[in-house]
Design goal:
Blueprint (H helix, E strand, L loop, with lengths): L15 E3 L7 H8 L4 E7 H6 L3 H9 L3 E8 L5 H14 L3 E6 L1 H13 L11 E2 L9 E5 L11 E5 L5 E5 L7 E4 L9 H20 L6 H23 L4 H18 L6 H13 L3 H31 L7 H19 L15 H8 L3 H4 L8 H11 L1
Parallel strand pairs: 1-9, 2-3, 2-4, 4-6, 5-8, 6-9
Antiparallel strand pairs: 7-8
Helix pairs in contact: 1-3, 4-5, 6-7, 6-8, 6-10, 7-8, 9-10, 9-12, 10-11, 10-14, 12-14
Amino acid sequence: MQETLKPFFFDGPASLLVEWGGAARLGALMAEWFAQRNLLVVTDRFLHDTGLLEPAKTSLKAEGFTVTVFDAVVADPPEAVLMLAVEQARTAGCDIVLGLGGGSSMDIAKLVAVLLQNDQRLSSMYGIGNINGVRVPLAQVPTTAGTGSEMTNITILTTGEKTKMGIVAPQLYADRVLLDGALTLGLPPEQTAATGIDAMVHAIEAFTSRHHKNPLSDLFAREALRLLATHLVTACTDGANRPAREAMLLGAALAGKAFSNSPVAAVHALAYPLGGHFHLPHGLSNALMLGPVLRFNMMAAAPLYAELADVVLERGVGGEEARAAAFVAFMDDLMTRSGAPRRLRDCAVPEDSLPTLARDSMLQSRLLVNNPVEVTEEDALALYREAF
């Protein structure tokens, strides 16, 4: 008997353009999309110094934009970096924001756009749906195929010495998103692997999320996983392969659209303390924890893993449990073939830190509640030990 459709809500950025080389004509695009002309570009120093921004800046200036560049974004950005960006934007009189870079740059861009038009205290924004008012116009252009931040209504900030917190609100969705796969051509294999696996985690956790999973998020998650699983190794081993780069960037965006509506869970909850304590890149942290969490969740998520096996493997081979096990084995093998580190010990994480990591992971209640299986502190410690 067919189940009735449960009510669900699905949201995302207002508009998405996929165009190889589109960043070189970003000025014309932005001029078409927005009336404002005093632009803050949020990025990082590496991208700025390497000249990757130059074609976009030249194009923007040619269309009459005044361009201010904030390039002090770092991985796992702290609140202080955000406030520096806001101060620079206010001093320059910026009335529009562009995030151009990885997930951290796009996360900062979201909140700058909010704080330029909002005197609400940052501390009151943490959690879900706590932003009041509106923001200035916001566009996002990713340079990595991983976080999906360009498609989400989520920002993650480092709030203390070793802790992270999230802000989730509809105001954080971009007005316009440009996916230009050419911007990802210079991404090194290690970063390609880590960010690509990060995107796959988004798709898997969205598909298995306990709350808000829905037919549309499932649709985006499955197609994201298909694209990412098919092209990850090629993108890592042949970084100039245009079809692979385009597929990875689109897959990451689709996964972002999926998990912003059907939230991620224990893999991310256990990954955040690794970033906070040891400054491991977010994608790598997810890659390290994915295998243990997949196996842990098997008791509840096996039927869903079996469905995902049909996406990445020969369809319908074996029973449900066999296909679920085959999916987990496929993901383990894919991560190995991508060249990503597989063990915590390989990333200079000391064994005596595992209890602290387990304790800190329990602070991620916003994420843990979405996991198909309840995770206790004891469970978390066992998962870290398995990953070690």
